[in-house]
Structure formats: C-alpha cells, structure tokens
Amino acid sequence: MLAGCGSAPVVQGRATSMLFLPDRVGGLPVTDGHSGKRSDAPAPARRAENTDGGQIDDLALLAIDDIEDFWSQNYAGGSLPGTFTPVSRLVSFNSDASPGIELCGENTVGLTNAFYCFKSDVMAWDRGVAIPVAAQYFGQMGVVGVMAHEYGHAVQQQARLVDDTTPVLVAEQQADCLAGVYLRWVAAGHSPRFELSTGDGLNHVLAGLIYIRDPLMTRVDAVLTGGEHGSALDRVSAFQIGFSGNVDQCAAMDSAEITKRRGDLPKFLDLFGDTQGGNSTITAALLESVMQSLRRIYAPANPPTLSTEPSACPDAGPSPPASYCPATNTISVDLAGLKALGEARTENDEQELLQGDNSAISVLTSRYALAVQHEKGLTLDTAVAAMRTGCLTGVGQAGMAEPGQSITLSAGDTDEAISGLLTNGLAASDVNGRVLPAGFTRILAYRSGLQGDAAQCYQRFP
C-alpha cells in the first residue's frame, strides 16, 4: 500500500470548487429546458380554505405538497431539531374581493401578498393579484419559489430558529436560504411534481427575488416600516447560500453573519438624500471619473485608456456598449448605448427588471477588469476568464464604496449590477462579450469579488 501511494501520479494545477466552475450552478450542470409542473405531476393532495378551485390555487397547493414532501425527507436533527409537521391551515384569498376575510389580524382587501402566521400556524396567499403576477412574470417556478420562502418561515418556527426578538431581516434571509435548499432538490431532479432548469428557469426565480427587494429607504424609514426584508443583493445572496450549501448554513444566519456579508457596501439613503438613490446620467465626464477611481482601486502599471470613438480591434471582438481591446489597451465606449443602459428604470417600465447608472458603470468596470487581467498575461477569451472578470468587477465595485473615490456607490447600486448580470450578463463576460450561460453563476462570481479581493479572484478562477 505504501509503495502504491508513493508511486501515484501527481496531478498538476490548483483545485477549484465545483461552486466556481462556469458550467455549474451550485454543483449542478447548467441546463436549459422545461421549468414548471411536470406533465405527469399528481393532483394536489392538500386543500385550502376559501379556494375558488382554480389553476392558481392548484399550483400553490401542488407547490406546498412538494415542499412538504421535501421537508418530510430532509428535516432531521442537527440545526433543525424535533420532527417536521406540515402547516396546519392553508387559506386562499382574493385581495381584489371585498369585504375580504380576516387573517392573522388583517383584512385581506388589498393584501397583495403571500405569508405565514407564526402564532396561528397559517399559510395564506393572494390568488387574485400576487400569485398571478408572480406566475405571469416569473413563471410557475417563480410561484413555487414564493411558496418555498413562506414555508421556510414555518420551518423556522418548528426548529425554533426565530422568536419574537429576531430581527425581520434575519428571519427573511433564513427563509430565502431555506427556499434555496429546497429548489436545489428540485433542480437536481428529485421532485415528482416540478422541474427547474439551472439556466433560464433559475434565472426567473432569481428575477423574482430581485423584484421583491426592499425599496430604497433611509435607516429611519427601515425602523418605522417594521424592519428590513433585504435588498436584491441580500435576498439573492441568501438564496444562493442555500442552493449551493445546506440547511446548517441557513440556520447559522444571524445579524453578525449578515453584517459581515454586507461589508461596507451602502445600504440606506442619506437621511436627506435623493430618493432616487443618486442615479446619474452617463456622460463622458462621469466615465472619466469612473476610470480615475478604477485606476486607484486596481493600481495597474499600464492603465487602459478610454475612447468614445468607434475603432476596430485586431485581437478581440466587440462587446457593446463597452469593449476592451488588448492590442491597444483601450476601452471603447458607445456613449449613447451606455447612457441608455444606465437610465433609471423599475419593473413597472416595460415589464423589465431594475436598471440604473450602475447597470452601465458595472459593465465599464468589467472592461477595466479585463485590462488588469491582460497586464498579468492571463487568457481573456474563455468561460473561466468571464468568471474572473465578474469577480474582479465585484472587487472594483466594492472599492467604489470606500470613501475618497472620485465616484462612489450609493444605496441600490449593487442591486442594479446584479439585475444587469441576470438580464444581459455583460459584467461577467469575456473579452469578446460572451456571457456565462447561467445568471446564477454570473451573480455568484460578482458576489465573490464584492466579498473578497483580487487575489481570491485569481485563485478561484485561474
């Protein structure tokens, strides 16, 4: 045995976690295809009070069947003590119907939400507005994601992970994480009721998390409105931790863990700040300020130059509205295109996700990150290079949150960046503008840079 071990061949290179491979999502292969109810899915077994017997309630109940199936198999000891017991009461309501019904101390008229009541062990959902909207914009698995989050609150209750003193943000982050644990089980093919592709299907679930983020608010607003539920970055981060990890990591989430994960990134508007979050129009002068900040943050020996004139590049393809040419060490910008990408927009405009100035600035940052890699002699036209670029973009953006920069991040800017990573992916693309196939992976690369440093980016994505 000793001789066998001594003669074993040595594999050269550095180990890379399955979590950080460009063709993987939480260790699973990147897949496309059907996401939603299986063609051979059984009829819902559970019943809801006040149901209209329609398709929305059938979908919600089928999701609850599946979630309870998962937790009955996976709720055992460790961080989830005791025995799993299904939620005792399920209620459907229509928020558009008057006079409504009383649930958990509230009348359901205008209550466009799904929720779980701790004290009465009731799970309820709005079949009139909230769930149909989730189905319309985020697909059937968007609805399943909503139900998984609310059921996460029931799991918290049973495991005694939360009590009346637990901050709302902690409870919400844990529930997002627990939903991620369940949905990975679905994506791995274990659900008898649903399928979830790790490409487009999971993108829609993540889009739903971005949609339900907290609005921009001051710290005082957060207190007066009953506490934070989490920014888009918070919610996606917690979900990804659950999807890529396990229940123990969800149970371990507390205020200290969330504070550490957030780092020094801006979370609130100034008390007398701009209610739009400081969104700036993209101009040539603003881009020069960004270039100055990035030069200080990345400290390259040979900084790239910025051009707003079109030009051909002999060794790389275009990635409009911002492209990097290694041969000339130049970042070429289509100013009109970048300005359009940076215009403030919410989901109410043209049924698209959040967008703002950092949707554009994060893309420019990624092209600067390519220049930094080029200076190190690294390959720029591979999927690993796209991951590394996303990571270094996160590093650059975290640097913009530090005081003294010529341009700084404001509250909501990272949400704009991850929304852009999900919709166009350019901030995690290679030198030719080829994006990583899964939005989950693009956001993960960016997050790893926000919460790390350049050395970690080079180590994880060699």
From TrEMBL:
Segments of skewed composition (Basic and acidic residues): 34-50
Region described as Disordered: spans on this chain: 30-51, 301-324
Highest taxon in the source lineage: Bacteria
Protein name: Peptidase
Organism this protein belongs to: [Mycobacterium] fortunisiensis
